Structure formats: structure tokens, C-alpha cells
Amino acid sequence: MKEVENDFIKFWIEDGILFSQFKKITNGNLENIKAIIDLRHEISDGKKQYWCYDFNGIKSYEKDARDYADQYGQDYLYVCAVVLNSHITKFILNTFMMLKNPVVPLKGFTKKEDAVNWLNELKRKNEQL
């Protein structure tokens, strides 16, 4: 299993899915988002990934960080499943994503197992093409 990490987040690839988990409560500021994207690019090694992004651990997510992630954070991704700790946050994210129609599909979940199942389903469909 391939792993990379810094002082606040860890990435690993397991069974063809990229996972991440925050190691401590982290502010989603521009500096940290750049570090997250750089680390994800490093582990991706130029190959597209199915990412299970455990968002639990993000204390806040600043607008300039969101804008940066929108512009530079979608490289090397097929899709992204975001694990959240709130059904309300999940609903808001999924509604926003339907309206936004992002380049990389992104869907929120409250259970990691459901996120992984969705990613595996999309992975199987993509491999059949």
C-alpha cells in the first residue's frame, strides 16, 4: 500500500481507491489546501484516481482556498466521494454540486462505506468501457 503524509493529512491507495484522512483538526486555508493538493498529486503519480476524501477534521474552508481547489484541485481525478459528519452538510454539498455541474463529479456521504461502494461502482463501470 502506497502512502504519503504531512503533519495534518495522510493519503493512501488501497484496492484501487485513493483515501485521505486528517490527522488533526485543520483549517482549510489557502496554504493548507495547496499542501493537500500537492500531496494528492504526489501520490497520484500522474494517474487519475477515485478519491474517498474524509472531510472530517476540516475546521473551516476559506473562500480563497475553495477557489484554488476549484481551479487546481481536480487534476488526476475521475470522481471524488466526500465523507462528512452531517446529513445537512451532505444535503447542501450534493445540492450545490447538482447546480454547479463540476468537471470532476463529487458526491457527499455520511458513511465511509457508502462512499467506497459508490466509488467502486463507478470504477467498475469505467473499467467496462
TrEMBL record:
InterPro entries reported in the protein's UniProt record: DUF7793 (IPR056695)
Boundaries of every DUF7793 domain copy: 11-123
Pfam families registered for this protein in UniProt: DUF7793 (PF25056)
Source organism, top-level taxon: Bacteria
Protein name per the record: DUF7793 domain-containing protein
